[in-house]
Recover the amino acids of this structure.
């Protein structure tokens, strides 16, 4: 699975490039935002394998040219993103664009650009793999034993009878004296989101969401999770940000 962060003001262009990326790699998770701080937070909490940035993220603001390059300089200071491919899209050449050289860009495309050439650049960029934060492991103490679990293999978890039940690809682990808030803090990943009180799910394992019934169908699990009415709006907002799910 690949993770791609797209920062482009034009909605149609975003959709076209998302479609292009899916043609190259169908198993891709997308993050989309124009807010530099939000993008930085997403990148730090996850493991983006490619950035698609507009140099001018806020064309409606005067003097905003190179805001995309400024973001890139900031993200390059994060160790895991020292060499992650960055592809820029620009409207015009500007001497300030020499900033690009400082952040080792993978390609610069001036509108209107060739989709064939863009596809080739994306294909080569996605050969790179940023070390996935979800490959981290976490250690649980249960019934006098220590169990090591790969964070990315946790599908969902919930509180039942005052105990935390963590369901992974291989097993269900029961942990005493652990709250959802405490566990999500330890996991430290935006992939995990509360879907109802006392229950959270790994967004990477959502197969389908039935809005009429308020149900979540999962990959690798027959369990059907309910969406709590009180947090439905916030949950769906986070899911839509990933733009990788089927809706009914």
């Amino acid at each position: 699975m690949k993770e791609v962060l797209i920062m482009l003001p034009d909605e149609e262009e975003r959709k076209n490039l998302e479609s292009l990326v899916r043609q190259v790699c169908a198993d891709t998770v997308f993050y989309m935002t124009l807010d530099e701080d939000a993008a930085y937070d997403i990148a730090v909490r996850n493991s983006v394998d490619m950035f698609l940035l507009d140099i001018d993220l806020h064309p409606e603001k005067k003097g905003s040219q190179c805001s995309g390059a400024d973001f890139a300089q900031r993200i390059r200071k994060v160790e895991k993103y020292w060499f992650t491919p960055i592809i820029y899209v620009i409207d015009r050449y500007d001497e300030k664009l020499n900033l690009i050289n400082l952040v080792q860009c993978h390609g610069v495309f001036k509108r209107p650009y060739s989709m064939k050439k863009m596809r080739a650049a994306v294909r080569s960029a996605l050969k790179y793999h940023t070390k996935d934060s979800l490959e981290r492991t976490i250690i649980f103490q249960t019934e006098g034993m220590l169990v090591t679990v790969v964070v990315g293999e946790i599908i969902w978890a919930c509180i039942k009878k005052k105990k935390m039940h963590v369901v992974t690809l291989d097993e269900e682990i029961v942990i005493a004296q652990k709250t959802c808030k405490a566990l999500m803090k330890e996991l430290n990943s935006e992939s995990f989101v509360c879907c109802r009180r006392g229950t959270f799910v790994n967004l990477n394992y959502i197969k389908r969401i039935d809005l009429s019934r308020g149900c979540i169908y999962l990959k690798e699990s027959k369990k059907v999770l309910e969406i709590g009415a009180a947090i439905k709006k916030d949950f769906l907002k986070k899911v839509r940000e990933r733009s990788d799910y089927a809706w009914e």
Remarks:
- The helical segments are 11-24, 36-45, 67-75, 115-125, 180-187, 232-242.
- Confidence is low (pLDDT under 50) at residues 243-248.
- The chain has six helices and 16 strands.
